[in-house]
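Morning. Coffee machine broken again, so started the prediction first thing and wrote up yesterday's gels while waiting. Chain of 152 residues, entered below exactly as on the submission form.
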Amino acid sequence: MVRPLLATALAAVCVASAFAGPLEPKKASEIVTLRTNGNTTGCQSDVHLAFDTQAVGDGAFSVPAGAVLLVTDVSSTATDSFFPLELWLGNSTLSAGGTVAYIPDYFAQTHTATLHFTTPLVVRSDEVLCIGPLIDGATLSARLTGFIAKDK
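Came back before lunch.
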C-alpha cells in the first residue's frame, strides 16, 4: 500500500515540476527591445507615448496574436518634465486600462530612471503599453526590454 502511494506522489511531483519553471525566453529571437516613437495611438491621451517601435529591426511592432509580451525592464530619460511618469496599460479600443507603475519624479532638469519587474508585466496582443505624461514642452525617451511567449 505504501509503495503505490509513494509512486503516485513522486509522479505528481515530476509532472508539476515539468510545468513549473522560470519565466524566461527560450530563444534569443524571443527577446524584444522597444522604444517610443512619438506615436500616441492606443494610449489614454495624446500626452502618453506608445512602445510600438523596435529598437533594432524593421520598425513597427505589435504583440503577435496568440502570444504575450513579458516586460522585464523599462528605462526613461525625461527633460523639463517635473511630473512623475507612469506606465499605462490598456486595450487598443480604450475601453479599459489603467496605470501599472510609476516612475518617480526627481524634480530635476533631466532625469533618468529604470524599472525592473521581478515578475514580468504581461502585455497581450490586444493591449498597448504607454508612458507619459509628456507635458509643457518636455522631452521623453523611453525603452523597454522583454520577450515574447506563447499565451497559455
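The CA atoms of residues 75 and 114 lie 4 Å apart. Going to sketch it on the whiteboard this afternoon.
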